[in-house]
Amino acid sequence: MTKKFVNIGEIDVFEISGVTDTIQNLIRRGKLWMFEKLATDKWWADLFGMITKADYSKSSPISPSGIVSVIKDYMYRTVDIASIVGEEIGSESIMEMLSEGLSSALETNFNGALQKIMNVWKGSLPSDLSYALSLGQRLDRVDRLYALSQIAPIGHSPEFILEALVSGADVRLRDALSTNKQQYIELVTAKNTVMIEHLTQLHNFIANLISELVFWIIGFIDRIDGLMSAIAQEHMARLNQLEDNLEANKLRYDYGMIDSTKFEQRLNEINVDVESTKNTWEAWINRFDGIIADIVDKISLLKDKIVNVIKKYLEDYEVDMNTVINLIADNVINNTLDTDLKNKALELYEDLKAYRKSGFNYS
Q1: Could you tell me if residue 133 is inside a domain?
Q2: For 129-155, how does the pLDDT look when each residue is reduced to its tens digit (9 = 90+)?
Q3: What digits encode the pLDDT tens for the residues 157-181?
Q4: Cβ atoms within 10 A of the Cβ of 4, count?
């Protein structure tokens, strides 16, 4: 305590004028100078060196025991300097330096430089949930222990980490099956396109065939009708001629130009000619009926053959396409990647829970 030289009542004149603070600060500075000479620069450098030399663990560049060691060393050093320059300055110079001196106010200069230097040896930015999501996307291709080492430092509960792994694995599964899915869609689309196209062509062919056949049959019937009309007219002319002969012979008989025997003979001849004409007409009719029946049978047979050929082609094409499509579908159905990813995610989940329960040794 600085001695009070001048007192006015209960008031210290030096304290009012600030001389006391100046004297105290000069004394502290002298002590600090003495401490610097005794401790050397190494003591100050070790404030940061103890962090870089701290022990590490498998899950973090600084182990729990290393953290405890740093804290204890900082406390001892705080007491060391506080014993010389006072508790307030001692704690401010070291403890507050960590929280205030390296705050965001110096983020882009001193703090940034310090962080960069520390990260070279002891970088320890904690993992976030995106690590688990990324691991899930290649879960079938990473070693279990490696995956566990990556997800262990993530500061989330195992349930959230499992969800991130499953979400990433779902992306991986979709990517793995996307090629088969695309091939399946393309083949089914191609098959449907060909089937529809050929069915359309078959429909158009049959429609055109029916149209052409209808017109051809109409023309054919017209030609048959013309022939039948011509033959009928010829036979009618023949019958008319025979009728005229009958009447003429009747007149000859009536006028006594021929006797009954001759008249009977001529009647028999005319009757034979009529029967012959009738038989010839029926023969023509039967022949036309046969021609029409043959044409109808040939058209029906030709139509059936064409339709069967197209149907057989479509059936064979569909069978071949379905064979390939079913192979792709079987490959998707029998793919075990889904189960493998689930099993590995659950295995990591159980390992993580056991890992979290094991705890650390801080001694």
Answers
A1: no
A2: 999 999 999 988 899 889 988 888 888
A3: 888 999 999 999 999 888 888 888 8
A4: 12
SS3 (DSSP) at 8: strand
Does 121 share its domain with 166? no
Between CA 85 and CA 98 the distance in angstroms is 19
**Which of 125, 146, 178 is the C-terminal boundary of a domain?**
125
Two tokens at 103? Answer: 């705050």
The domain in which residue 25 lies consists of 7-125
User: 329-360: per-residue pLDDT in tens?
Assistant: 887 788 788 888 899 989 988 888 888 877 76
What span, in angstroms and rounded, lies between the C-alpha atoms of 315 and 309?
10
**In terms of Cα–Cα distance, which of 334, 332, 347, 335 is closest to 139?**
347
Q: Are residues 273 and 331 in the same domain?
A: yes
Tell me, yes or no, whether 166 and 39 share the same domain. Answer: no
In a domain, 103, yes or no: yes
Closest of 142, 149, 163, 146 to residue 342, by C-alpha: 163
Q: Would residue 85 count as lying in a domain?
A: yes
Residue 258, CA distances (Å) to 243, 248, 270 in order: 18, 11, 16
Cα distance from N-terminal residue to C-terminal residue, the chain? 42
Task: Give the chain's domain count.
Answer: 2
Three-class secondary structure of residue 278 per DSSP: helix
Q: How far apart are CA 317 and CA 190, in angstroms?
A: 11
pTM: 0.50
Helix (H, G, I), strand (E, B) or coil at 11: strand
